[in-house]
């Protein structure tokens, strides 16, 4: 395509609408599934390990395939791959809504993650390809802002569906959204692709990444069982094989040369630590609110709203601050603010009130994220050559998902939870305290790592 769309044209607005609808589906799932876990566990008679897999099955396939999904769009057409991803995600959502057993739901969530790996990079790349330089920043800003609104209303919509209809509707609601997305995309969105995209796809790399993450995740969740040690060995071997393949293939999914930059490596290590803590905080807090404090699913979901609102209204200001003073201080202080918020969440107990016991902690978590996220993203992109900016962003996205995946797999076992402990208030309350302290430690470690490894651009020059 040689003619770019105008932002204010009908087709231009349609591109943004399709991108927001598609990414909104994945955002909705990301914000409400944790809220539904307790209800799902009771309805399907699921163990804690099965609840972990319901969350992690999606993250596993998403983290493993998101880079490959972006490459497919560049080669075969961004709209085409995006639409395929939307349809795939919708069909997997239907299977989730119809699941009669925990295993069926876990398998459907894995399939959902495959669709998410096509939709997530596709929504932004459609905008990148459809708009020219003059309108691109405005279009991305509109997409980001409307996506933030979708994330903000997700917990409310999900909580209402869980409390007043059924948890199954948090998945089934994706079907009409998918239909609307496909209709808009088919009618108005132009097809774009990267005409310079060459080479074979790194299918072996994507496969080994999935096996490595699956093996390690299984070992962490099922630790103490017969197959856990075998899974750990398989995961470790797949990880080594992945590094060998990525070093030797001419078109790697993850160009290892990027990690020769200390800044790039450090920023991604910090991402792993911080997003591991954030994933665990989200997993534990909504269960604590429902199991121990007696909140409904609706109230537990809405309780986390200050985090989304802080990101929506303050993240851009955090980015501007980092431009003025450099990324080092925000990437150091931000995680420490989030850590303070995690420790304040220790106030959540059997008689917790929202404004005194929940609001201060989740608000601090949101403020800390608003300080650190934009500088972190900018640092990752600045540390990579311009022609690798998309790959660098994708790697950082995948690292963040992997961090959440591994933390949700490891931390429940580490703090002594098993079986149906998620539904036993006294046991879960005790484990929750240990989990929040562990999350705070991960966050402080991320801040310390940033202080010693991240350098401001002026200092480097």
Automatic annotation (TrEMBL):
Pfam families: MFS_1 (PF07690). Its main location: membrane. Keywords: Cell membrane, Membrane, Transmembrane, Transmembrane helix, Transport. Coiled coil: none annotated. One of its GO terms (cellular component) is plasma membrane. PROSITE patterns: MFS. SUPFAM superfamilies: MFS general substrate transporter. One of its GO terms (molecular function) is transmembrane transporter activity. The chain crosses the membrane at residues 12-33, 53-69, 81-100, 139-162, 168-189, 201-221, 227-245, 266-289, 295-316, 328-346, 358-383, 395-415, 435-454. The keyword Nucleus does not apply. It is found in: Cell membrane. InterPro entries: EmrB-like, MFS, MFS_dom, MFS_trans_sf. It is a multi-pass membrane protein. NCBIfam families: efflux_EmrB (TIGR00711). This is Putative EmrB/QacA subfamily drug resistance transporter. It comes from metagenome.
